[in-house]
Amino acid sequence: MSSSVLRQRLVELIEARLVHQTPDGHYVLTALGRQAHTALTPLVDWSVTWAAELTEPSAESGTAATDAPEIP
């Protein structure tokens, strides 16, 4: 990632009040950022599991799964 893209992303996170820049130039999560992290962690965990399941061969076809699972 280029430094200009990184800087733009950091500006967006600051404007969204998810991070702030300390006097020594570091970036840290705000209380809102910590809450977002807590809320999004289960979704990230689920997506990692889902991605792994997509690359595993299915029992029926022997190929990687490409269809969404049935929702009970």
Could you walk me through the main structural features you see in this protein, from its secondary elements to its overall organization?
By secondary structure, the protein is mostly helical. It is 53% helix and 8% strand. The chain is built from two helices and two strands. It has helices at residues 3-15, 31-55, and strands at 19-21, 27-29. It has a two-stranded antiparallel ribbon with strand order 1-2. The protein starts with a helix and ends in a 17-residue tail after the last helix.
Task: Offer a quick outline of the entry.
The protein is mainly α. The protein has helices at 3-15, 31-55, and strands at 19-21, 27-29.
What is the number of E strands?
Answer: 2
Number of DSSP helical runs: 2
> So what's the oligomer here?
single chain
Our measurement of the CA-to-CA distance between the termini, rounded to an integer number of angstroms, reads 41 Å
Rg (CA only):
19 Å
**What is the residue-averaged pLDDT?**
87
Biggest sheet: strands side by side, in what order? 1-2
Summarize the amount of helix as a percent range. Answer: 40-55%
